Amino acid sequence: MAENLNSNNSENDNETKYSLKEIIAALARRPKLLILTSLLFFSGTIGFTIYERLKNPIFRGNFALLIADPIGSEKIQRSNSGFESLAINKSDNDVRLLKLFLKSPYVIQSLADELNVSHSYIERIIEIESRGGKYRDTGNILEVIINLKDKELGEKIIKRLSEIYLDIAVEIRQKKLNEGLKFLDSQTPSIMKKYQESAEELAAFMEKYGTIDPIEEGMFLKERIAGYEDQVSSTNIIIENLKEIKEDVKNKTISTKGFKELLSSKNDFLTLSISTFNQTILNQAEEIEERIRSAKSTYKSDSVIVRNLEEKLYEMRPSIIEAQISSIDTALQIQKDLLISHKLALKNLEDDFAKQASIVKEFNRLQKKVTLNQENLLSIAKARENFRLEIAQKTAPWTIISPPRMSSSPTSPNITFYLTYGAFFSLILGTIITFLRDKLDNKYHYVDQIIRDLDTISLATIPHVSTFDGVREDKRFLLDDIDNIDDSSKKLKGKNKDGKDLETLEKGYQRFFYQEAFRNAITSLRFLQSDKEIKTITITSSIPAEGKSLINILLSKTYSELDKKVLLIDADLRKPQLHVRLGLNNILGLSNLLIDSSLELKNVIQKIDGFNNWNVITAGLTPPDPARLLSSEKMAQFISNLKKSSDYDIIIFDSPPVIGLADASLIAEKTDGAILLVTTEKVPVGLPKDAKKIMEKSGTEFLGVLVNCIKKNEKKLIGYGYNSEDIYSNYANPTNEEVKEKDQNSIKNKIKSYLTKILQWIED
After folding, report:
1. Of 726, 81, 102, whose CA–CA distance to 381 is shortest?
2. Which residue in 26, 22, 20, 24 sits closest to 11, CA to CA?
3. What are the CA-CA distances from residue 30 to residues 432, 724, 752, 753 (Å)?
4. Which residue in 90, 94, 129, 112 sits closest to 164, CA to CA?
5. Do the Cβ atoms of 580 and 476 come closer than 8 Å?
6. pTM higher than the cut 0.85
């Protein structure tokens, strides 16, 4: 049971947090209120939209400007001239600053003067958007928009604005072009002077070095250096070849004829280096060698002629070798001298070329300076000509790509926009109001709410009885109040048809109402006994002060009047009330019976005066631990004995509230079933449901609910049997139909009745 209570407390803690689940639950409990409030706000939106559309229509005017070249012509933009860009101070458009400029007094003051309005008024109605409308994907489009109630005035303003913006663009462009031309004119003399100075400096340089073109002279020197480098290389090759021939001569591996042929093939100029003496010896040796070859072709190799010729050649061999070596040495010396000469000439040319490089560098610098100044002079002359042409043309740099026009029908309020957002915010406001209504008035108002929320049946609906108001607070003797109702009913019978004592009449109605309600409850309980007998019942509530003790007394009284033997037991051992309501003593009661084993049931039973078959057991002395006492085996045995006893037809236990205490569940689980009392306009929504869950977890048979109405004229009290006050009134006193009809015909009552029905429908 403690676990159940902890679970219940946890659930109550969670309910204090406004979670999405809780909001949805609140909306589900009051769907009609949500729909009605949302529709009410949405209707207001529709009404406001229609009113604004008819009374305050706004017409929209607009035109689009292409500002791709706002300060210069296309020709200047293509020329890409540095002087032109500098002169015209050309830069990218700052759209934000351009918008401010177009709405400034400098631009629109003339329009304000024409219309005889202030500049601030014109500025206020103008909207300038970049990348607007159908030109949203471009970067150089401005859309100018105005919104006015006066369509004719709007047409005039939008048209004049397009003209003014084009005029101001031409004006600014002309101004910039004139300023740029002045700048170019001021720069021309200095550029001309720089050109003349650089040309004179170049002429003086050429005169100083006596050259027309130092670059060509340098190229000529470079070619000569390359020629001498080739000669040095070829001379070195000849010297190496001569050294190889000399080695062959020393090794005697070459003939005289072969020597001459080799010299001829290696160098065409070597023959000029052989002296006359050496030439004679070499010629003689060559002649002998030729004779030997001729003799060998005629005679045998060992013939006398061949041997004589060979001996002669052999004797001349030293002289031949000496002549050959002498010729080679002479040729080597000539080539070495020539190599020295070539190298000397090459060095002189390289020195001259090194000097020429610095001259060429200076020449190039001066020539570039002259060329740059000349180009600047030509560029500034071309820019001046272009500026003069642009000034003469006076073309507009901007283009209107969408003509100025006003919409034929109002554009504001936008019906789709207003209704869409109106529906959205209406739903939001409806949700907020419904949720707040649910939180601020979180009480049950109607029986249908209770039945739907608890998913159970209503055994009966107890109507409001004004006589019982304040019984708990005043701690009045309840049987006296019941007697007063009975006496009032008797007094009513003595009045005439037009009876003036309406208070007495109303008390008569109330007596009939509550009697029928409790008879319905008893009938409902009888129908529930189809499966098993219901003899012991526990009647409890969710929270204190719901009228539980009063209901138990009236239910017991009704049983007694139906000739049923009833025992009413006050099982609220913490705050007992029955003895006060019935005027009984509380010296001995249930607690004494459970504690004192010497006591018998007859010792604690008390009778009610005037009711022979209605007995009561009060709570007795308050024990220190009521829950322990109620959960004891003796309590279970006590209830079991009562079930078996034939002394009573019905035993009713008046127990403490379920929420927060275990007492009610401890009692109910031992009885045949429990009835939960739910008081409208008092108990918070959700607590009865929690109470039902707690009892069901403890194994209690939940029989249904009794709905207790604490307000007068409750409507829609639906249960088993007759629960409508209008129906009851006809059965209560048919002789007073005229009074009832008079009351119903009252306009005030009709209005009140309609409003009540509407509120009931919303809350349902």
Report:
1. 81
2. 22
3. 12, 24, 22, 21
4. 112
5. no
6. no
d(Cα 550, Cα 471) in Å, to the nearest integer? 9
pLDDT in tens, 404-435: 999 888 888 888 888 999 999 999 998 988 88
Among the residue ranges 46-50, 306-310, 711-715, the one predicted with the least confidence is 711-715
User: Residue 150 corresponds to which amino acid?
Assistant: D
CA distance 392 to 76: 14
Residues 6+ apart with CB under 8 A from 348: none
Residue range 393-409: mean pLDDT, rounded: 86
User: In terms of Cα–Cα distance, which of 462, 356, 456 is closest to 674?
Assistant: 456
Which uninterrupted H or E stretch holds 506?
A: helix 502-527
Contacts of residue 711, defined as CB under 8 A and 6 or more positions apart, other chains included, come to: 464, 680, 681
Q: What is the distance of C-alpha 428 from the center of its chain?
A: 20
CA distance 112 to 105: 9
Q: What's the Cα-to-Cα distance from 404 to each of 105, 110, 146, 151, 163, rounded to whole Å?
A: 21, 19, 11, 13, 10
Give yes or no for residue 498 having a pLDDT over 60.
Answer: no
* Rounded Cα gap, residues 753 and 535, in angstroms: 42
Q: CA angle 229-230-231, nearest 5°?
A: 90
Element spanning 69, H or E: none
Is it the case that residue 736 has pLDDT exceeding 80? Answer: no
Residue 300 CA to residue 669 CA, distance in Å, equals 161
Q: Which residues pair with 585 in a beta bridge?
A: none
Q: Is the pLDDT of residue 719 over 70?
A: no
pLDDT in the model for residue 671 = 93
- pLDDT digits over 268-325, tens only? 444 444 555 466 777 777 777 777 777 777 777 777 777 777 777 777 777 777 777 8
Cβ-proximal residues to 161 (8 Å cutoff; 6+ apart), any chain:
63, 108, 111, 126, 144, 146, 404
Average pLDDT, the chain: 78
Query: How far apart (Å, rounded) are the C-alpha atoms in residues 430 and 35?
Result: 7
User: What is the rounded average pLDDT of the residues 62-73?
Assistant: 70
Alpha-carbon distance 370 to 715, whole Å? 111
State the Cα–Cα distance between residues 746 and 365, nearest whole angstrom. Answer: 118
